[in-house]
Amino acid sequence: MMAELDVLKVEPFGPLDALYAAVRRCAPQVAVTRARVSEEYGIPKLGTVGVLELRLHVSYRGRQARRIRWDGEADAYVWASGPDYRVQLPADPEQAAMWVGRALGAPVAPAPSGG
Fold first, then answer.
1. pLDDT, tens digit, 9 for 90 and up, residues 34-43
2. Measured between alpha carbons, how far is 80 from 107 in angstroms, rounded to an integer?
3. How far apart are CA 17 and CA 49, in angstroms?
4. pLDDT tens across 83-94, in order?
């Protein structure tokens, strides 16, 4: 039993997990999934290197799915595909979720009140 637990890989709750939960709350009609996708980077003298990166995939109705990534240097969410490619979203997951819903044309629930 202990050997089985040793091989389980648990990833910590991160920024994309927080955005996933916020999209589910703020824009529940948006289809949202987390997936690792291959990203290729060109490195001088080494060529192209592929790395698996975590992305959030969002879509609404018949619209094409779009990706969102977390930019650790900017401490913000960033569109990783679609017409807003490389455009930053708010760093706050609740605000970013509302932007995502609106960008996809989905109904968005009002932000929860702070008190």
1. 988 876 655 6
2. 22
3. 26
4. 999 999 999 999
